[in-house]
Amino acid sequence: MNHIRASKDRKDPYTLISDVVFQSLRDCWKNEKPQKWLFPSWDKEKYITARTVQKIFQSICRKAKINKDVSVHSLRYSFTTHFLESGIDLKYILKYIQELLGHKSSKTT
Q1: pLDDT digits (tens, 9 = 90+) for 46-103
Q2: Which string of DSSP letters, residue by residue, matches the chain?
Q3: For residue 29, what are the domain limits?
């Protein structure tokens, strides 16, 4: 599990990412040597916006010929759904999923 710092709403959640993705991000950081942000906007002093990420995601979906109405946010809930579908008992894992999604209330989760 990896910690995301300076994330949306300053919630700084934890997340699961594969070792391959983690190493790719680490390599990108080492190679690019960003001064402030790993994913800067055109203005290197600012990070890319959620809208920019959404546009990139939509472009990737088009290229992959995914015609469903999906968003970056859909990925969070797909992750949780697949996690539960794998047989994890909800009463034991709800708090863990709540933490992963960065929700303050289990009702939101």
Answers
A1: 888 889 999 999 999 999 999 988 988 888 778 778 777 888 776 666 776 677 667 7
A2: -EEPPS-GGG---EE---HHHHHHHHHHHHHH--SS-SSB-SSTTSBPPHHHHHHHHHHHHHHTT--S---HHHHHHHHHHHHHHTT--HHHHHHHHHHHHT-SSTTT-
A3: 1-37
What are the tens digits of pLDDT across the range 75-86? 877 877 877 788
Tokens 């300053």 sit on residue: 10
Q: Does a structural domain hold residue 11? A: yes
Confidence (pTM): 0.60
Tally of structural domains, the chain: 1
